[in-house]
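To fix ideas, we close by showing one paired sequence and structure record:
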Amino acid sequence: MNHRDLKIALRALVLLTGVGLADPAPAADRVLAVTTDFFSAGSISSMETSAPWDVQADLAPIGSDAVARCHDGLIYVVNRLGADNVQVIDPSQGFQTIRQFTVGPGTNPQDIALVSPTRAYVTRYETNDLLKVDPSTGEHLGTISLAAFADDDGLCEMHRMHVQGDSLLVQVQRMFRQDWPDPWIPVAPSYLAVVDLRTDQLVDMDPGEPGMQGIALAGLNPTAPIQFDPFTGDLLVLTTARADLVDQGGIERVDPRTMQSVGMLITEQEIGGNGIDFALAEREKGYVVASDLDFNTFLASFDPAAGGPATPLYEPEGYVLTDLLVYPNGHLFLADRDFFTPGIRVYDTTTDALIDGPLDTGLPPFELLVLPDAVSGAEEVVDLDPAIGLPYPNPSSGAVRFSGIPAGDRSVSIAVFDAAGRQIRRLAGPSWNGRDDVGRQAAPGVYWIRVEHGDGRTADRSVRLLPR
């Protein structure tokens, strides 16, 4: 066993501490629900990713207007308008709040991007200053001005974020604010502002143009979290433009290699309304929650590969569907805030059939995310270059594919190692069917994938196989 083999084995052993190597523990990821009445109360609830679901409601009180991120075993709740703080919850300590810190009164925080246990960034909607903090203490470490992206009302309206290698991408909505009842109008173009995480400086994405330029988006008003498309290596950005029109929004692709938009994956017209959230299940299947012009929300499926209009799957009355989540065991979780029976609906991503629900979460669910098990690998990766190849789905109950690696690229070497550091498979292409070199099905558990490119780039990836 050479040094790199030993390194892989040691990393796997750290993940599997307390678990027998011959019989790894089953996956223990949970679906986390941010719940709220939108007036005075909010909470955290959770459930299993498969039946019998084991819903645990009201695990921790939070603000009534909140979003959350999971990172390194902790839950970071961004309590937004009127609260202006970040709340840190530790699931291993009975969902206790272990820390809470202000991000500035009246700043209306929207998101937190975790880079390390001591470094994070917070978007603040009512200021042009992106805040840098130490999330382990709450200390403010400085600000990065995004004033160069402001429209004529003086604010840029920074929203959700995404860490891409050494870059932090910040959604800039540029909403021109008008007096009620006139709607806020997005001012073209909307951007992804790019911050170099090595220097904490803005990056001018088009030095030939006057002023500071970000990644100009084809759509207007980016809203939902940015997602990584493992099948193409692109980033996916949902824009909603104006809520009273179906015109300049949709889901668009951004190429992280060129840092440019490459156009719409699906438009608002093809969706049939203004998008709220979306997720990909397979190369040929995605899901979107949207709202029509009468503010009735619906769930629809679409084909990211072939394009074309979305197909409605569930159309309740009223503005009741707020978020969705696809887990790689073939389940789609949908947040349904129906007035009489709110809860989480569970669908089969193969048949699109309703499996169960609505499952009661206490307060109505608003946002859904994965709370990873300690050895899951399901948590968002923020420090890896996806162009080298990220495994998907992860965890997986079937085949695992590697994004960013073209089929037939013989300059790439991919090997699979078990928890003891033994190489069990050498791959001929960017996918693994879960079997070893002699065709035996690998046991459920954590495996390490070594990806080596001909240009010298290398990466070790962890993959969790679920029971079939």
User: Anything to note?
Assistant: The first helix runs from residue 3 to 15. Helices lie at 3-15, 268-271. The chain is about 5% helix and 45% strand.
